[in-house]
Amino acid sequence: YPLHLGVTEAGTPSMGMVKSAMGIGGLLCMGIGDTIRVTLTADPVEEIYAAKKILRAAGLRKEGVNLIACPTCGRTRIDLIPMAEEVERRLANCKKNITVAVMGCAVNGPGEAAAADVGIAGGKGEGLIFRKGEILYKVPQERLVDALMEEIEKL
Ligand code: SF4
Q: What confidence score (pLDDT) does residue 77 get?
């Protein structure tokens, strides 16, 4: 029989995601489980996104964007957190099996994210678009996310 995995009454998204990832993801990583359901006290759409993230983190779902973003540090020259959130939101339904990077500085960003298929790195009032660590061009900060989306369209 197929074995169904879920963590019931996991709670609101912040803690519910952690419990679900540990409970469901832990078993999946041991090769246990055939179907899953994530239950959160949230819009059911959030449950679907959470399930996709768990499958992706467990290496069982290849479809969709792997978004990487730097943790920010003293070198960060851009308001990175809302930018990373916007990129994640805009790519939520993208089916391309690619890695996209959102990095805080032009000094280390492209190198640290050299494995990414495409990425952006923040500068002062502007930013870089790079692909596999190679810098392509500069754009003004307000165009950065749109330019990234255009590059992703080309992949
Ligand atoms: S990419 Fe730049 S801003 Fe981000 S953590 Fe690395 S050095 Fe800091």
A: 83
Beta-ladder partners of 6: 37
Which of 68, 76, 77, 81 maximizes ligand 1 atoms within 8 Å of its Cβ, making it the mutation to test the pocket?
Answer: 76
76 lines ligand 1 (CB under 6 A): yes
Do 35 and 82 belong to one domain?
A: no
Cα 100 to Cα 116: distance, rounded to the nearest angstrom: 6
Q: What is the CATH number of the domain that holds 148?
A: 3.30.413.10
> Does residue 102 line the site of ligand 1, with CB under 6 A?
no
| Cβ atoms within 10 Å, residue 153 | 9
Chain centroid to Cα 5, Å, comes to: 24
Q: What is the pLDDT of residues 83-123, one digit of tens each?
A: 999 999 999 889 999 999 999 999 999 999 999 999 999 98
Q: Calculate how far, in angstroms, residue 142's C-alpha sits from the geometric centre of ligand 1.
A: 20
The minimum-distance atom of ligand 1 relative to the CA of 74 is 8
Q: Are residues 18 and 82 in the same domain?
A: no
Query: Which range marks the domain in which residue 11 is found?
Result: 4-57
Q: Are residues 52 and 76 both part of a single domain?
A: no
